[in-house]
Amino acid sequence: MKFCRFYPAGFGGAADSAPRYGLLEDNQVKEITEAPWREWGRGTRAWPMNEVQLAAPVEPSKIVCIGRNYAAHAAELGNEMPKEPMMFLKAPSSVIGPGEAIVLTKYSSRIEYEGELAVIMGRKCANLSEAENPFEYVLGYTCLNDVTARDLQKSDVQFTRAKSFDTFCPIGPEIETEINPRDVLVETFVNGERRQSGNTSLMAYPVEFLLRWISRMMTLMPGDVIATGTPAGVGALLGGETVEVSVAGVGVLRNPVHARRS
After folding, report:
1. What 8-state DSSP symbol labels residue 259?
2. Same domain for 70 and 47?
3. 20, 45, 178, 259 - which has most CB atoms within 10 Å?
4. What is the DSSP pairing of strand 102-103 with strand 251-258?
């Protein structure tokens, strides 16, 4: 299944401004009655795809990110591979949806894209044992762009500021429930030129390991996001460009880039 959050055509009125959850079928968005991790049913309304605006598919309580999960990416930044997963958080306020603009901040002179496979949690998850199947706690998968102020990341040492500016976490376009996260192609394009290409089979720490590991430190809630790391090929974003993150079997997350605010 493919789940989404969306605004119907003509949503601009204040009384109808909250996005709704939907199911993508037959080139239509069909409204569902609840978030897809709850007991949902099919609503009575549907819209053609060209008559809706997609929003970020979730509103997470937290975005848990894994750094240096691809050896080639660690090497391109001159870093050693970590002996255990390198975990950090992005602020939920950084989330935007497909088509929304990444706005470059005046506080950084080097802002980069990082295309990633993202895991969307479907059940409350804490202290998973080795015997438990971590995939039973997953709703599905989507694309994520871990936009990063690289100069601030280096100067601050810890990552919070560099990763959490408003608009620095595009997510979408939808949640796909049926891909195999162990073998998925992740690519990033800037103005149509491919800049990143890597398979999740190259991850140092695969998704099932990450789910168990993270759950032993913090409780994961339905709708929470795990960003699983980026392949090699990261690079700068400039105002006027368009960046696309593609995850095979999910879709393409496309966002324009706007010049930094004065």
Report:
1. P
2. no
3. 20
4. parallel
- Answer whether 86's CB lies under 8 Å from 246's CB: no
Token pair belonging to 212: 């168990």
Number of domains in the chain: 2
Which pLDDT tens digit goes with each residue over 42-91? 999 999 999 999 999 999 999 999 999 999 998 998 888 899 999 999 99
Which of 174, 195, 192, 183 lies closest to 248, judged by CA? 183
Alpha-carbon distances, residue 204 vs 28, 67, 68, 86 (angstroms): 38, 10, 8, 11
Domain CATH for 107: 3.90.850.10
Widest CA span in the chain = 54
Helices first, then strands: H and E counts in the chain: 4, 20
Q: What share of the chain is helix, strand, coil (3-state, %, to 5)?
A: 15, 40, 45
Residue 69 belongs to domain spanning: 63-258
Q: Which two tokens stand for residue 250?
A: 């999910």
Tell whether 127 and 252 lie within a shared domain: yes
Low-confidence ranges of the chain (pLDDT < 50): 13-15
Q: Show the tokens assigned to 142.
A: 């989507």
Q: Are residues 90 and 175 in the same domain?
A: yes
